[in-house]
Amino acid sequence: MKKQITAYRAYLDEELAQAQGSAALRLLEQYELRLADFKHERLIHLLVTLFFAGATLLLLLFTVALAPASLAGDPGLAPHVGIGLVLLLLIFLIVDVFYVSYYFFLENSLQQLYTYRDRLWRAAAS
User: What is the mean pLDDT of each run of 10 residues along the chain (126 residues)?
Assistant: First the structure.
């Protein structure tokens, strides 16, 4: 999706340089459709990011509650449970960092794409 958004912004820059009147209106219609696709992608990734962050918080609670007892030799918990929870928590945290950075890319890209609407309307009016 990063490549698609970047390529689409380059395409809009190129087309806006020469679009006037009805050509700009057709470009505006196409723009609105692509923007809706990008908004949908952003929404899906927001939901996935929030779900994964919630799962990470739950895993953090389990790790804080169970890992110390497991590692201290509690007879009810095997030592590998605590180690496994800590490793799983680290994996979740790393994935969360990537999800959040990708979501920020989507959000910032859409904010930049919103500026094209005004430029397209000005080109259509001329």
Answer: 91 88 89 94 95 95 80 69 87 96 95 91 84
- What's the one-letter identity of residue 104? F
CA gap 26, 112 in Å, rounded? 20
Residues 6 or more apart whose CB falls under 8 angstroms from that of 39 comprise 110
Which positions ≥6 away from 119 have C-beta within 8 Å?
A: 16
Cβ-contact 42, 4 below 8 angstroms: no
Distance, CA of 40 to CA of 60 (rounded, Å):
30
For 62-71, the pLDDT digits (tens) are: 888 887 776 6
- How many Cβ atoms sit within 10 Å of the Cβ of residue 111? 9
Interior angle at CA 94, CA 109 and CA 71, nearest 5 = 160
In the block, tokens 């929030």 appear at 50
